[in-house]
Write a structure and sequence with these properties.
By secondary structure, the protein is of the alpha/beta class. Helix content is 67%, strand content 7%. A hairpin with a 5-residue loop joins β5 (165-168) and β6. α6 runs parallel beside α13 (312-340), α6 (179-213) runs antiparallel to α14 (348-368) and α17 (401-429) packs across α18 (439-447). The longest helix has 38 residues, at 226-263.
Length: 448
């Protein structure tokens, strides 16, 4: 009979939320946003380009920089030392994107550069102008030393280094690894746990406050025990969370795969030679990185090889475990806070001790995915109130089984203890009206 009542409460909490329009809308929109975050950066880098043929007038009083300015698809440079700068400033031509003025050099061959435009100069133009002037001045400064075959020497010493990383398995095999991928997975998994715990835990708290305000809870507790009601509410909202999360994953994968099938990976991969050529012409380190990657199977090939070595099963299992236990732990505390107040505005004082460990775990997580084996990361992954976020930041990098088992065990024991504590507060708080409780009142309720 008790199990039937608990099941009815879970079903009620589940059905109330999945029938809401907000649930349906967010369930559909969120995967679209996730897929956009995955696809758009690559798509933007592949397809985006600035307005072509923009005219930039350069007034070079130094006479040193003109050979270093090359026209690009986006910018066309015109040099005129005799240009009427004052007149152009008074009446800026519509066909002119920017006016660049380079001062005469001082004794150390340093110049001042100013750029004037009718609208804000974009970052690409500013960076390109700075880079070209810098290269010109450096070349002329080096020429002062009268070193023979200077250009040949510079070419010979200019070395590009690209480090390819591998991990060694227990059988001695090597697998391609990219630390950027592990850091990305660690950050995303940890932040999603933080977001979901906060979002669905707050949902439990608001549900308790709503039932308490409408006095529905008085009718419900006449048929079930308060602990059953709290547990049913937590498990009901948790089942909504798992359903929504599962739908998000399936739709995100389906949308991403569909878009990639339509636009094709070859378009993205095919742009790397162009990027390398542009970077090489500009003398940046990006050219060396891209060219080094292309000597093997290409950037995309390296990424997929690195992804194949990611312990997907371990990450998914750990994510589900820490999400469920982390949610249950914090949902019990959120339910206790909701039962102690009459409206959401009164939760600020009581909610701070609950949210503080969550926020602290988020900050430790940011440190952890950069330094997964530090002492702070280890203890953050053991303390139950921060372990859901911090341990998920460590899992992609590899964690000994005993540490995982200990962390999960501590989290489960703490969940059971906090559920017992929260249930005592909940039992008294849901029937308390008209008084804004403080921590002293909560302590009294625990002793009842």
């Amino acid at each position: 009979m008790k199990n039937n009542k608990l099941f009815l409460i879970i079903s009620r909490e589940f059905l109330i939320r999945v029938r809401k329009k907000s649930f349906i809308i967010m369930t559909i929109l969120t995967p679209i946003l996730f897929a956009a975050l995955i696809i758009l950066p690559s798509l933007i880098m592949t397809l985006s380009s600035g307005k072509t043929g923009q005219q930039i007038l350069v007034v070079d009083h130094s006479g040193l920089c003109e050979p270093f300015f090359n026209d690009t698809e986006e910018f066309i440079y015109t040099f005129d030392q005799q240009a009427d700068v004052a007149g152009i400033k008074k009446s800026f031509p519509d066909n002119l994107y920017a006016l660049v003025e380079i001062s005469e050099p001082d004794s150390s061959l340093n110049v001042a550069v100013s750029a004037l435009s009718s609208k804000q100069l974009n970052l690409d133009a500013k960076s390109e102008i700075e880079r070209n002037v810098k290269n010109a001045l450096e070349k002329h400064k080096l020429e002062r030393y009268n070193i023979e075959n200077l250009e040949q020497i510079i070419k010979e010493i200019n070395t590009k280094v690209s480090v390819k990383t591998f991990t060694v398995t227990e059988s001695g095999d090597e697998k391609v690894a990219m630390v950027e991928i592990y850091m990305g997975i660690a950050y995303i998994a940890s932040f999603m746990i933080y977001m979901f715990i906060f979002m669905f835990g707050s949902m439990v708290m608001r549900g308790v406050i709503e039932e308490k305000t409408t006095r529905i809870v008085e009718v419900i507790v006449s048929s079930v025990r308060p602990f059953q009601l709290m547990l049913g509410k937590i498990l009901g909202v948790g089942s909504v969370a798992m359903l929504q999360f599962l739908i998000w994953i399936l739709l995100t994968v389906a949308i991403t795969a569909g878009v990639q099938a339509i636009i094709g990976f070859d378009k993205i991969a095919g742009t790397t030679p162009e990027i390398a050529n542009v970077a090489g012409a500009q003398g940046t380190e990006l050219a060396g990185v891209v060219n080094a990657a292309q000597t093997d199977s290409g950037v995309a090939g390296e990424i997929f090889s690195a992804l194949s070595s990611v312990p997907v099963t371990g990450i998914v299992v750990s994510f589900i475990l820490y999400f469920l236990l982390g949610y249950l732990l914090y949902a019990a505390m959120f339910a206790a806070v909701g039962s102690a107040v009459d409206n959401e505005a009164d939760t600020q004082q009581l909610i701070f001790p609950v949210t503080l460990p969550l926020i602290l775990g988020l900050f430790i997580m940011i440190h952890t995915f950069q330094h997964p084996d530090s002492a702070l990361s280890f203890w953050g992954s053991m303390i139950p109130f921060t372990s859901p976020m911090v341990m998920m930041a460590r899992v992609p990098f590899g964690v000994p089984f005993w540490e995982l088992a200990l962390s999960v065990g501590l989290l489960a024991v703490t969940f059971l203890f906090m559920t017992y504590v929260s249930a005592k507060i909940y039992r008294v708080g849901i029937l308390m009206y008209g008084k804004k409780p403080n921590f002293k009142d909560l302590y009294k309720w625990l002793k009842y």
